[in-house]
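fyi for ur records
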Amino acid sequence: MSRRLYHKALPQTHTPTPCRRFTTTPARPHALHPPPHTSLTSFLSYAARTNLPPSSTTYIGTHYEYVVLRALLRLGLRLRRVGGRNDAGIDLLGTWALPHTAPLRVLVQCKALSRAAGPNYIRELEGAFAGAPRAWRAGLALLVATKGATRGVREALGRSRLPLAYFAVGEGGVVRQVLWNASAGACGLEGVGVGVRYCLEGGGAADADAAGPREEIVLSWRGEVLPDHEADGEEEEEGPEELFD
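which gave:
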């Protein structure tokens, strides 16, 4: 059985910086042209139509962004891909629906790395706030990568005064680790539990555990596991346009 990677909040090393709550629908980010794809399915069709090599950095990065978008939907994050030349380093924008608070505005950076992410990616994530749409500058920032957080990443998260979180999402779309800092807890994650469940099916080969069932993260509130949003019939194939209108 592989070593478990999931975590809850990191120890507090400073006074958390609270983020503002939002009760109105956020404005849609500016876009000069409609995107050629808005989902994993449409991207795969686009890649086949344009002969985009699967080994190219564009294919790998974009494919992983859509994998992350679908994986995080299950945990209540309704996101839209905004990657492009003017994305300020932000790949996904949206909200995180939790049962005890108004939806949190979330910006996401995705890193389809073959190695573990280093603490330099936390500094890059902090810088993404400056280029984010105004409504998201007081929200939560997520770094999502394929490997579990290193000690350097955990320490960098703990030192940051900005509300940050780290998710490990495998190439097959299985969420293997979730952790956040004290400021993220003050944003609305305080009291949210992080656990693991074992699944016998689903996920990609990259996430399979040869020794037995694969593990994936579940969230809870007051001891009750939060529902799987895909299982509730949420549409994961298209970007949640209503969040941005």
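Residues 1-6, 22-27, 231-245 have pLDDT under 50 and may be disordered. thats all i got for now
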